[in-house]
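Deliverable D4.2, example record:
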Amino acid sequence: MTAHREWAERIYLVVTGAGTGRRAPEILRALAGLGPSVLAVPTPNAAAVVARHELYRALDGLDARHGVVDSYFDAKLGMPAAPGLVLVAPCSFNSLNKLAAGIADSLALSITADGIGAGWPVLVALSVNAGLAAHPRTGQSLDLLSSWGVEVVDPDMTAGVPRLAPAEALVAAVRTRLERR
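Output generated by the structure prediction step:
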């Protein structure tokens, strides 16, 4: 198996502490229908909006190759982490700017930074409030990440601020990227 093909066998769903993180179980379950194994990797701040047991519950009845990764020592992850497509959904202001600054201070951000450096497909789905959307650093960080090859999934703008896109749109973006392999 070539390195180019290896990343198409796994999807990492990085869940941050944005308020829309409570939608992560729905997104996780939807991604599991795409074919590759899916591992949810929450940041420490994600615990403020979605409980780990909700992520595990989303996997009930699904293939055991899907899972939630809680530590670097998780057998499903393997070390070093196997190549995979990375979807950061939702991507909070904090995580967006850490990624742009090269800060990888959690397992979730380390996998994402590794993916950026290794050339894996990385997709970011921003979800912030009006003030953070207007903050100068938001555009700068999105532009920088885009220049590194990170794909930005168009947010839902119906409320006038970038909110996490619907699960169907996130799955469609991942599917499109998998088909380009």
